[in-house]
Recover the amino acids of this structure.
């Protein structure tokens, strides 16, 4: 169950509005990580309120409070894949809704699914990759590895468990048709956060952006939802460089811990997971070039208001490449100065 003082705290002060949480909460450049973890729980409720989803979908406030606290409890505390990451993803869904006029592209049910799935998409993450689950034949791998996307299937399953647990079913007042639909939407959205699956969708997302989004096209709707959750998952890279750098370091702390565990088991980790061999700036340039830039370029084609985000990712990529050059020069000169003693 959810600890009572947190629950009372969430339900007692009549939930502050988004403006009371922070006047810039809906800004493209707002940094959700500056909020405290308790403020994040209240902010999620305030964001649903601000999008009019609580009244439109007749969501019980006490159940929503319990749901949010159960989701928060469902996250562990690895350096990156934790409650703060979960909230930052849900927050970006809200920011896109408020700034891109998402309701002209998607039904409100889809927007609700996106925002709730954003909060739940990494629940119970252990700070290790799908490859790690399979390699070490973890319980999750035995459960899900036959279908792939091992962690993502677990995140979805955990979300369903919370929805079905006592007094947490925030969708109970939906029609049975809409209930089935939102569960299916959240499944697709959470599975779309698997890097492997994402890479299979990017080409089609590019084609859709070039040919023009057709709202009645079911394939386009699926591709758009997948794009939006991926952009939300990567939204820290579309903010100021100090935020991107801070987040990158959290990610490598998590990667290097996995690498340490792999070494302890006699396995050689991939370079980017090996604290002895990794080159963070080089890996970040590659990651932004191959993963983050493409999706924010597609977002910029679909939503003109997203252009500043695309430019920010470009700028962050440029800064990482300058950092990388600096590293290379230093290592080069370091070798030569050591040579001086021979
Ligand atoms: C700043 C930043 N650097 C990253 C550098 C490398 C990698 C990486 O996974 N390399 C290959 C594997 C085999 C180790 C991910 C990075 N990353 C992510 C991320 C994105 C994900 O998937 C979607 C959202 C679908 C793309 C899934 C997981 C993560 Cl951690 N989020 N931010 C970052
Ligand atoms: Mg994930």
């Amino acid at each position: 169950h959810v600890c009572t003082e947190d629950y009372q705290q969430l339900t007692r002060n009549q939930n502050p509005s988004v403006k009371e949480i922070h006047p810039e909460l809906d800004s493209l450049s707002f940094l959700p990580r500056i909020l405290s973890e308790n403020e994040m729980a209240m902010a999620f409720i305030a964001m649903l309120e601000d999008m009019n989803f609580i009244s439109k979908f007749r969501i019980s406030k006490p159940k929503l409070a319990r749901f949010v606290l159960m989701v928060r409890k469902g996250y562990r505390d690895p350096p990156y894949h934790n409650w703060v990451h979960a909230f930052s993803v849900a927050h970006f869904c809200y920011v896109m809704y408020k700034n891109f006029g998402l309701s002209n592209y998607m039904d409100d049910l889809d927007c609700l699914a996106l925002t709730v799935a954003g909060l739940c998409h990494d629940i119970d993450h252990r700070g290790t990759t799908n490859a790690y689950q399979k390699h070490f034949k973890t319980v999750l791998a035995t459960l899900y590895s036959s279908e792939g996307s091992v962690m993502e299937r677990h995140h979805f399953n955990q979300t369903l468990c919370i929805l079905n647990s006592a007094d947490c079913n925030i969708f109970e007042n939906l029609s049975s048709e809409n209930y089935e639909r939102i569960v299916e939407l959240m499944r697709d959205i959470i599975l779309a956060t698997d890097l492997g699956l994402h890479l299979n969708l990017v080409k089609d997302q590019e084609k859709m952006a070039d040919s023009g989004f057709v709202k009645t096209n079911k394939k386009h709707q699926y591709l758009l939802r997948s794009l939006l959750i991926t952009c939300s998952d990567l939204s820290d890279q579309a903010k100021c460089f100090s935020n991107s750098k801070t987040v990158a370091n959290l990610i490598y702390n998590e990667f290097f811990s996995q690498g340490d565990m792999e070494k302890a088991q006699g396995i050689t980790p991939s370079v980017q997971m090996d604290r002895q061999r990794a080159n963070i700036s080089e890996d970040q340039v590659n990651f932004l070039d191959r993963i983050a830039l493409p999706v924010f370029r597609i977002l910029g084609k679909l939503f003109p208001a997203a252009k500043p985000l695309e430019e920010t990712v470009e700028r962050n990529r440029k800064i990482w490449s300058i950092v990388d050059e600096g590293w290379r020069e230093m290592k080069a000169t370091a070798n030569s100065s050591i040579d001086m003693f021979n």
Remarks:
- The chain has a mean pLDDT of 95.
